[in-house]
């Protein structure tokens, strides 16, 4: 049967990206430039890797008022249309690209697509949220009992309803009031008729940066989206900081209690684009450093180092440089792979990874191959790639993974399988090696990963410098909703 929804890719389950952890969204906003929505569309295009299900843009023009457009699918297929962009006038605009981590896990409903908009006594406001609210279920129940009517299944809508119930005098203050009730992770870009607002949660789990574009300003999940509009990167929004940007400039304050930051370390490993800057560090260089650390920790005698495209490429280069083993493109990615252009029959489903990746047989045959990938989640893709490499005549297959074993689900904005479906949650490294049927399997250590991101002494167990809950089970914010539903936290003694 064809997909039930035009952008449903469930029939490609385990065909490549479906065995990767998913970032759920990217946010972008611009103020003080003509045709701001066009700049937002370009920014969202650069952030497409953070969410491919759907996208939305809201703009404000004094004559037209607030205008919005929300669409399923890629930015390039929707927000390059002149007909759509003409409906989004004004010098102030925000946007969002989405991959769901909460709410409806089936086909996305258009009502779940952000930005969300609310009309308040002092005027309208729109918000776009990157992250996940870990007490959303409790907040939603409370708000519904008090008369709120929800339009979506998204946790992010809680923020709008909390703002509506606040007694503060203006929208930025109401947003502060609302976000003090929220637990979990949030980087928010919002807008009123005159203001562009950016906020990060006190832990700074998800990224948010500030840029200068002409006489205006931009907020973005990543610096790569500033580059596409020719904006100058100014700085990162700090954990716990709120910036309110008007024609007068940028006002900054810190409405939340200060705590030690816990930025998501997986942003360095996989989520962010390699041409972005995080914490003053090139993501590409960090991933190359991860490969170097991996080569030091887990050397192996082999003929070729091959990346699993595309996310394993920088780490594979680092592994090659450190080990002296030649780097080679042993697996080629079909860059034009989207949804299959023919009906997804059972035969097409069984093709799986081959729809997206193909082995360079002439290079691989008879060689001892080191495959470098960013992570192992369920293990289904790793096993299929191994089979492809052996079918091409490889003598040996060694996996080197540029992150520690992913043994715990994320509740801060990443779509993670339930814990029992994570391979590392139920198997040791040796058991995973036997399950994947490879000659060797090694993950970078948690300390090695910390060294690669610039922490020379490794991870500080008493106060980790990053959020690494997906590897360690050490959750900086208790996922209250999940615990109430039966999720078992890691015992303190472990």
TrEMBL record:
State the free-text cofactor note: Binds 1 [4Fe-4S] cluster per subunit. Binds 1 Mg(2+) ion per subunit.
Its catalytic activity?
A: 5-phospho-beta-D-ribosylamine + L-glutamate + diphosphate = 5-phospho-alpha-D-ribose 1-diphosphate + L-glutamine + H2O
What keywords tag this UniProt record?
4Fe-4S, Glutamine amidotransferase, Glycosyltransferase, Iron, Iron-sulfur, Magnesium, Metal-binding, Purine biosynthesis, Transferase
Coiled-coil zones: none
Q: Name one GO molecular function term.
A: amidophosphoribosyltransferase activity
Annotated Mg(2+) binding lies at 311, 373-374
Q: Which cofactor does it need?
A: [4Fe-4S] cluster; Mg(2+)
Its UniProt pathway annotation is:
Purine metabolism; IMP biosynthesis via de novo pathway; N(1)-(5-phospho-D-ribosyl)glycinamide from 5-phospho-alpha-D-ribose 1-diphosphate: step 1/2
Note the HAMAP family from the entry. PurF (MF_01931)
The family note in this entry says: In the C-terminal section; belongs to the purine/pyrimidine phosphoribosyltransferase family.
Q: What does this protein do?
A: Catalyzes the formation of phosphoribosylamine from phosphoribosylpyrophosphate (PRPP) and glutamine.
Q: What is this protein called?
A: Amidophosphoribosyltransferase
């Amino acid at each position: 049967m064809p997909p039930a929804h035009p952008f449903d890719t469930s029939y490609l389950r385990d065909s490549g990206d479906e065995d990767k952890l998913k970032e759920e969204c990217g946010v972008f906003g611009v103020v003080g430039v003509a045709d701001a929505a066009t700049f937002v569309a370009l920014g969202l295009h650069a952030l497409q890797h953070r969410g491919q299900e759907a996208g939305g843009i809201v703009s404000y023009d004094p004559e037209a008022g607030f205008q919005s457009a929300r669409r399923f699918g890629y930015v390039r297929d929707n927000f390059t249309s002149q007909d759509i962009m003409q409906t989004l006038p004004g010098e102030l605009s925000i946007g969002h690209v989405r991959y769901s981590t909460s709410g409806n896990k089936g086909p996305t409903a258009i009502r779940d697509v952000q930005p969300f908009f609310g009309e308040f006594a002092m005027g309208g406001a729109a918000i776009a949220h990157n992250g996940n609210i870990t007490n959303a279920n409790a907040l939603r129940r409370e708000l519904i009992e008090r008369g709120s009517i929800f339009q979506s299944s998204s946790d992010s809508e809680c923020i709008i309803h909390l703002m509506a119930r606040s007694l503060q005098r203006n929208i930025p203050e109401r947003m502060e009031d609302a976000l003090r009730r929220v637990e979990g992770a949030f980087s928010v870009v919002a807008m009123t008729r005159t203001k562009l607002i950016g906020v990060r949660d006190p832990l700074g789990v998800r990224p948010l940066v500030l840029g200068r574009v002409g006489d205006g300003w931009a907020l973005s999940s990543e610096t790569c989206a500033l580059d596409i509009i020719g904006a100058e990167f100014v700085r990162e929004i700090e954990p716990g900081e709120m910036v309110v940007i008007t024609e007068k400039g940028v006002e900054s304050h810190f409405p939340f209690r200060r705590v030690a930051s816990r930025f998501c370390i997986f942003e360095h490993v996989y989520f962010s684009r390699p041409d972005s800057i995080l914490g003053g560090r090139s993501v590409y260089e960090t991933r190359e450093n991860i490969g170097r650390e991996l080569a030091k920790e887990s050397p192996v005698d082999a003929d070729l180092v091959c990346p699993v495209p595309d996310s394993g490429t920088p780490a594979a280069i680092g592994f090659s440089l450190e080990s002296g083993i030649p780097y080679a493109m042993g697996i080629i990615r079909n860059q034009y792979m989207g949804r299959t252009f023919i009906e997804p029959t059972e035969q097409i489903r069984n093709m799986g990874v081959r729809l997206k990746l193909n082995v360079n047989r002439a290079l691989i045959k008879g060689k001892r191959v080191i495959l470098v990938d960013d992570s192992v989640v369920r293990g289904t893709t790793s096993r299929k790639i191994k089979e492809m490499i052996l079918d091409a005549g490889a003598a040996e297959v060694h996996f080197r993974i540029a992150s520690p074993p992913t043994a715990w689900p994320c509740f801060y904005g990443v779509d993670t399988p339930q814990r029992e479906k994570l391979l590392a949650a139920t198997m040791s490294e040796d058991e995973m090696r036997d399950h994947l049927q490879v000659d060797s399997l090694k993950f970078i250590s948690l300390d090695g990963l910390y060294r690669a991101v610039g922490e020379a002494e490794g991870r500080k167990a008493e106060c980790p410098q990053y959020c690494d809950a997906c590897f360690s089970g050490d959750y900086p914010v208790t996922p209250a909703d999940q615990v109430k539903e039966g999720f078992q936290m890691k015992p303190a003694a472990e």
